[in-house]
Amino acid sequence: MNQQLAGYAPTPVTARMENHGRAMLKVAMQTGHDLFARTGSMVAYEGFVQYEPNPPAVRQMASQWLTGEGAPLMKCSGDGLLYLADYGADVVVINLNNDALSVNGTNVLAFDAHLQWGVERVKGMAKFAGQGLFNVQIAGTGWVALTSRGTPIVVDCGRGDDETYVDPDALVAWSPGLKVKGKRSFKASSMIGRGSGEAYQMAFSGQGIVVVQPSEDSTDRLRARG
Q1: What angle do CA 177, 209, 184 make, to 5 degrees?
Q2: Chain centroid, CA 44 distance in Å
Q3: Cα dihedral across residues 141, 143, 148, 151: positive or negative
Q4: What's residue 125's pLDDT?
Q5: What pTM, to 2 d.p., does this model score?
Q6: Where residue 222 falls among pLDDT bands split at 50, 70, 90?
Q7: Residue 41, class by beta-carbon neighbours within 10 Å (0-12 exposed, 13-18 middle, 19+ buried)?
Q8: What number is the average pLDDT over the span 61-82?
Q9: CA 89 from chain center: how many Å?
Q10: Can you say whether residue 5 is alpha, beta or left, with left for phi > 0 and alpha for psi between -120 and 50 degrees?
Q11: Angle made by CA atoms 77, 148, 202, in degrees to the nearest 5
Q12: N or C: which terminal CB in the chain sees fewer CB atoms within 10 Å?
């Protein structure tokens, strides 16, 4: 039986964060290198790992998440291997090198605690989305793990002069240096019986990337749930 299951066994550690399969994140934990992770995302760990729900750094940001459900992150510390997942969603690992990323709060799985982060309003979208859209901006040098409902596509917006248009419900993350504006249109779904009425897309231009998942997220874009 061990031979039959050998392909699913833990693999040697090669990086701080890496995929174990498409839907699980493996984090090499080390004392002094703490981690913020989505509350409830731990599925297994080896060694000595401690968890602090609603830590002070998160409480300070909590009011900006516009949700009464409490802070969506926990702080993880210790030594060992930590495995995280989010209901079978694909996991995307990114190593920031003095860079920044703007991430939809529902797609944040984990990031190094030493990175700078905060909740920010997406400029240029308030008139299209009522109160506006809020994202988590993460910056610095370190590791970030995102989730995607299916295998995402990463669009390089710097390859041409045309704008890139994305349904906000399918958006995962983008480079904060990109220019963002809203565009109203009629959803294609109204043509095939899934609804009707006016909708909007987000238009990106400039140098940077946009990460798009192949499934529209039906959750409230103003909330970041744990």
Answers
A1: 80
A2: 20
A3: positive
A4: 59
A5: 0.84
A6: very low
A7: buried
A8: 73
A9: 11
A10: alpha
A11: 115
A12: N
User: What are residue 166's DSSP bridge partners?
Assistant: 202
Which whole-number Å values give the CA distances from 142 to 13, 17, 97, 130, 135, in the listed order? 17, 10, 7, 34, 19
Select the more confidently predicted residue: 168 or 198: 168
Percentages of the chain per state (helix, strand, coil), in multiples of 5: 10, 50, 40
For the segment 31-35, the average pLDDT, to the nearest whole number, is 96
Q: What single DSSP character describes residue 19?
A: E
Predicted confidence (pLDDT) per residue in 88-100, tens digit? 999 999 999 999 9
Q: How far apart are CA 71 and CA 59, in angstroms?
A: 7
Q: Residue 60 has what DSSP assignment?
A: H
3-class secondary structure per residue, 103-154:
EEHHHEEEEECCCEEEEEECCCCCCCCCCCCEEEEEEEEEEEEEEECCCCEE
Find tokens 């400039």 and name the residue. Answer: 206
Confidence at residue 130, expressed as pLDDT on a 0 to 100 scale: 45
**41 touches 49 (CB < 8 A):** no
Please tell me the distance from the alpha carbon of residue 139 to that of residue 102, in angstroms, as a whole number: 9
Q: For residue 112, what are its two tokens?
A: 């190094």
Q: Which two three-digit tokens encode residue 105?
A: 């709060």
Q: What is the pLDDT of residue 49?
A: 97
By percentage, how much of the chain surpasses pLDDT 90? Answer: 51
Answer whether residue 58 shows pLDDT above 50: yes
Backbone angles phi, psi at 7, to 5 degrees: -70, -15
